[in-house]
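so ive been stuck on this for like two days lol. basically i have the seq below and the ligand is S-adenosylmethionine, smiles is in there too. i just want the complex predicted, nothing fancy, no docking runs or whatever. if the output looks off dont worry ill sanity check it later, just need somthing to start from for the group meeting slides
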Amino acid sequence: MAWRLLCGSSEGCADVLHGVTSMEMLEVLEHPHAKGGSSDQAGWCGLAGSCPTVSVGDFFILQSSTMLKDITSLILRHTLVSRSHLTPELSLRLITRGCEAWGARAEDVPFVDPYWGFYWPGGQAVARYILDKPRFFQSRRVLDVGCGCGAQAIAAAAVGAERVLANDIDVNALEATKINAELNNVSVETSEKNFIGTKCEGFDTILIGDMFYDEEFAKTLFEWLSKLTDSGKLVLIGDPGRHGLTASRMSSMTRLASYTLHEDTCLENRGFTEAAVWRLEK
Ligand SMILES: C[S@@+](CC[C@H](N)C(=O)[O-])C[C@H]1O[C@@H](n2cnc3c(N)ncnc32)[C@H](O)[C@@H]1O
């Protein structure tokens, strides 16, 4: 399918892309003005012929069915079902050693930074903790921020949480989450919205799996999570000891559990052999 796309950003960008195939759409979505959701200044025109000027959010709705079908088939093609992790009761489609994409050059993989293709140590620890404490999570309204493959959200849904929303700014992660939820016979809501800085109304439990990998982001994340904790939300953080989880930040946290990682996870995360679940304190 051919597309005609125009970036109508008021910042002076005048990119016009003709004849982009639906596969190439994945790259087009990496356009700087395609990020940030409908509040961004970007305006994309739609299909050749009709060309309505729409916001980024609307654009996704207009094109969504074809695109999502493509994303789903690419995910199915480039992943395998794995139970080699801390939550073997969950089957998860992941990029594992047997996959073409494993170790391939970035330009040979049809995804940009497929974080969702891996089950990160921090996410594994939180999901394990949830599955081990089903009663505690049954009455909770859970928001999984940066859901990746969706395992934390899926674990919460599996134990019968009252509400579960899996959130990621990467649309591919949300598709992977839907595929993985179906594989485990649960359903979860998904959202691509950037929740960082918001009050997370409608949720009482915020799950953060392995998101302290970058100092600048860790600072923003921690300040926001501290405000959520002050407002009475339960914030659970899973982490194997990444540098963003500094001693100062850890001093405001209580370690709830610690797990030895599966050997495959240790190989993928050189140097880490354990991951812990932390509760952020007021
Ligand atoms: C290292 S991965 C962890 C995935 C998953 N939580 C796990 O532990 O397996 C970090 C994820 O956070 C997502 N992410 C980054 N910034 C985000 C933001 N502002 N809001 C939501 N997700 C975000 C990335 O797209 C990626 O899927």
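Residues 115-280 form a domain with the Rossmann fold fold (CATH 3.40.50.150). Residues 115-116, 119-120, 122-123, 145-149, 167-170, 173, 194, 196, 209-211, 213 surround S-adenosylmethionine (CB under 6 Å).
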